């Protein structure tokens, strides 16, 4: 098991997926600038965004202290698995934290993931969903301001602007209660997922044959479990603030789900 000192010096690579949403990406990057643990790099996994995104990232890199790499490929449809794998190959960190470009993080996000990182484990975290109205309000601010958001959190919850409150306020320590005993499909969110880079490489990353939205994250989690790793819940610790967006094209979701179930059944047999 890694010592506390080793954990502190362990470099983290945040693999930040994005696609043509500069307004949200700016706020996510600004939230990463405010982290109380700064020992990380950001790999932007860009699934074929237009030039506007590249211009924004180039400009942002000039005025930030964050270490940012931009990994892009041509837009040939939803190919999140492939661009994440390209980002993994570009990552210099020992530990990977997967995040989406519309998920703002709290100031202790990196620190909490570091505390949960242990050899033989990977982490699936949670998210708090913002309503369309609250998302519009937040994105109208000149910059991301966690203090401002946090001050009004109870009001946002009462008025259904956000679907969680206590798990954003109350942070719980690590413990055996976080460990899953077996693979379960629920609560897998690719927008808040972490593992050792070496473990991701052992399973050859995400399944690139899974195209279109849906379940490439469940497939990744199943295959990590399948090599003997223990899944740990990051809930009540690492919750991200998921900005509202319209529902993606889910025409491929059923086929992707079928393929994951097929792998699960093959393992059971």
UniProtKB/TrEMBL annotation:
Gene3D superfamilies: Spore Coat Polysaccharide Biosynthesis Protein SpsA, Chain A. This is Glycosyltransferase involved in cell wall biosynthesis. Residues 182-229 form the Galactosyltransferase C-terminal domain. CDD domains: GT2_Chondriotin_Pol_N. Keywords: Transferase. SUPFAM superfamilies: Nucleotide-diphospho-sugar transferases. Residues 13-139 form the Glycosyltransferase 2-like domain. One of its GO terms (molecular function) is transferase activity.
């Amino acid at each position: 098991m890694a010592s506390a000192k080793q954990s502190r010096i362990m470099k983290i690579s945040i693999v930040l997926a994005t696609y043509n949403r500069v307004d949200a990406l700016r706020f996510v990057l600004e939230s990463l600038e405010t982290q109380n643990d700064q020992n990380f790099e950001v790999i932007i996994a860009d699934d074929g965004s237009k030039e506007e995104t590249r211009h924004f990232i180039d400009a942002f890199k000039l005025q930030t202290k964050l270490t940012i790499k931009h990994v892009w490929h041509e837009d040939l449809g939803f190919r999140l698995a492939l661009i994440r794998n390209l980002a993994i190959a570009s990552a210099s960190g020992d530990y990977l934290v997967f995040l989406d470009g519309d998920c703002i993080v709290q100031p202790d996000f990196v620190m909490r993931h570091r505390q949960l990182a242990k050899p033989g484990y990977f982490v699936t975290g949670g998210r708090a969903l913002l309503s369309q109205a609250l998302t519009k309000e937040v994105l109208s601010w000149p910059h991301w301001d966690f203090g401002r958001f946090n001050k009004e959190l109870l009001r946002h919850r009462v008025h259904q602007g956000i679907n969680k409150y206590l798990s954003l306020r109350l942070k719980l320590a690590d413990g055996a209660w976080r460990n899953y005993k077996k693979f379960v499909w629920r609560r897998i969110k690719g927008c808040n997922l972490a593992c050792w880079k070496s473990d991701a490489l052992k399973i050859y990353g995400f399944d690139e044959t899974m195209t279109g939205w849906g379940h490439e994250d469940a497939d990744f989690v199943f295959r990590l479990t399948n090599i003997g790793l223990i899944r740990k819940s990051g809930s009540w610790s690492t919750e991200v603030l998921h900005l509202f967006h319209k529902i993606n094209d889910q025409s491929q979701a059923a086929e992707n789900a079928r393929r994951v179930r097929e792998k699960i059944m093959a393992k059971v047999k």
